Amino acid sequence: MRNWHKIKIVLIASLLILPFASCDRENDRTRVEIRGNKFYINGFPTYRGREWKGSNIEGLLFNSRMVQGIFDDSNEQTARLWKYPDTGTWDPDRNTNEFIKSVEEWHSYGLLAFTLNLQGGSPTGYGNKGWINTAFNADGTLKKKYFTRLYRILDRADELGMAVILGLFYFGQDQELANEQAVLNAVDNTLDWLNESGFRNVIIEVCNECDVEYDHDILQPARVHELIVRVKNRKYEGYNYPAGVSYGGGNLPGVEVMKVSDVIFLHGNGVDHPDLVREMVRRVRVMPEYNAHPVVFNEDDHYGFDEDDYNMKAAVESYASWGFFDYRRDGEAYEEGFQSMPVDWAVNSDRKKAFFEKVREITGGFREEERR
Prior knowledge:
By secondary structure, the chain is of the alpha/beta class. The protein has one domain (49-370): Glycosidases (TIM Barrel, Alpha-Beta Barrel), CATH 3.20.20. It has ten helices and 13 strands. The protein has helices at 2-27, 76-79, 92-108, 144-160, 180-197, 225-233, 255-260, 274-285, 311-317, 350-363; strands at 32-35, 38-41, 44-45, 51-52, 55-56, 63-65, 113-117, 163-170, 202-208, 243-244, 264-267, 295-299, 323-324. Strands 10-9-8-7-6-13 form a six-stranded parallel β-sheet, with helices on one face. A hairpin with a 2-residue loop joins strand 2 (38-41) and strand 3 (44-45). The protein is globular and about 50 Å long. The termini are far apart.
């Protein structure tokens, strides 16, 4: 009886403490905001007071394309292509587990954001050939296993004070949604899930490269701004998730997209000279519809970080955020690439090391005591 009395005391104490512990976690959530052309995290501009070679980087958002963090393939014929070299099998949970283990290392170099996508990206770097990777059912409802993996990644980013650029749709996968209503359902269901989960560290990229090969009209350039507006109009106690959409490499956003976007996403694929990066940013900022939005390259497969001039440097000098896109080239080892499946999420190849070392040089990195 004495033991039962002790157990009752412990249970009552636990019930009293739990609501307050839950409340503290909610209040401690990372909050990403856009104020003018700067990003703020938890009320402060990113990289506060930091300059690099005469360029102001306060308010920028250095990022990396990590879109396969929740990847899976429901096509049995192609799923075997993604087998791990050490086990000979594909494992989506292993992929997410290893992703999560690596996030703190990325952050330590000064990285403050990464891009995920609910329909991934090409698991071979470029191109689509029959694989099926989507977090949505045909009617736009959410697949539980995908969103369980997503929750774990967003939660880890939240703990570290990082932003996540969350893409909703990817060409070559959007056809898995039955119709336009399913697309709308997918948008609404995702935003409701984010809100119910308590995340405020998410920036929405409605779709990746809307001007490429989407099946649904509403994901194409003439109408995609409707989905940006839909995201912004879906408010939760006055809060809405910041939103934008990307275009193919070297292309600028359309007028309607410029009017409604919170952030201007650009891609540097195919932009083979740094001066062209500078010109892209300049042309965006002289558009009549531009209203001091942050400009973010969240995909660029040009490197050259040890050269006199390179795309990342050109972006920084133009006060634009820059994102690393790395994929495995033909004949390269498993360690290469952050998009080609299966992914080795560690910083262990020459390209990965060069990028992260450059981020640390520019940002100063984050010491242990500066992390959340």
